[in-house]
From TrEMBL:
Name assigned to this protein: Cell division ATP-binding protein FtsE
Compartment(s): Cell membrane
Similarity comment: family membership: Belongs to the ABC transporter superfamily.
Cross-referenced PANTHER family: CELL DIVISION ATP-BINDING PROTEIN FTSE, IMPORT ATP-BINDING PROTEIN
Biological classification of the source: Bacteria, Bacillati, Bacillota, Bacilli, Bacillales
Major location category of this protein: membrane
């Protein structure tokens, strides 16, 4: 599902954030990406949804090479990828239903399909009763549920989550992880960058450690620990 071949990323200020990365992530996998701050973890994640482009090398998502993808094709790529952010990125003037529906309106889904898909996904994340509420009326955990609903409403093949529990209390973080587990159980590939050691060590999945712009460890049923 995701392949990186000899990927390098050097920023204009000279910082090398990816230094010869090679990795393959299969369909339906759940992968944690961990590592020290400033180690290249965010760049690793951002290149997967073309927020950043590699300086050199190839990145394939479901057979599409992001390294050679024209900018005008990026929106079409993102229809196959759901992205969940730490700070939710909800539209404050739209209610819960409208925030999720917006992802389908931009690709011109029919009103009937929008209603069905939005209602189904709100039920999955437990927000059916709060569909008409606005982001400022929700808790942080509820806002993150809306963000997750929006990311999966178009049934993407891959969900990329960048510190999705970073702003949440421990109890809410576990609730959010249960939703990600449900999404993964439906066959969706999940790649999650996280600093949450307890979650990584309790809900065991493949762990990729990024440090110095390189993958320093990659193991199945791995643990959080890494050398700083």
């Amino acid at each position: 599902m995701i392949v990186m071949k000899d990927v390098y990323k050097k920023y204009p200020n000279g910082v090398v954030a990816a230094n010869g990365i090679n990795v393959e992530i299969g369909r339906g996998e759940f992968v944690y990406v961990v590592g020290p701050s400033g180690a290249g973890k965010s760049t690793f994640i951002k290149m997967m949804y073309r927020e950043e482009a590699p300086t050199k090398g190839d990145i394939f998502i479901n057979g599409i090479n992001l390294a050679t993808l024209r900018n005008k094709r990026v929106p079409y790529l993102r229809r196959q990828i759901g992205v969940v952010f730490q700070d939710f990125k909800l539209l404050p003037k739209l209610n819960v239903y409208e925030n999720v529906a917006f992802a389908l309106e931009v690709i011109e889904e029919s009103p009937k399909q929008i209603r069905k898909k939005v209602n189904d996904v709100l039920a999955l994340v437990g927000l059916t009763q709060k569909a008409r509420m606005f982001p400022n009326e929700l808790s942080g955990g509820e806002q993150q549920r809306v963000s997750i609903a929006r990311s999966i409403v178009n049934v993407p093949k891959v969900v990329i989550a960048d510190e999705p529990t970073g702003n949440l209390d421990p109890e809410t973080s576990w609730e959010i992880m249960k939703i990600f587990e449900q999404i993964n159980a439906r066959g969706t590939t999940i790649v999650m960058a996280t600093h949450n050691k307890e979650i990584v060590n309790t809900i065991r999945h493949r762990v990729i450690v990024v440090d110095g712009g390189m993958i320093t460890r990659d193991e199945y049923e791995g643990v959080y620990g890494y050398e700083s």
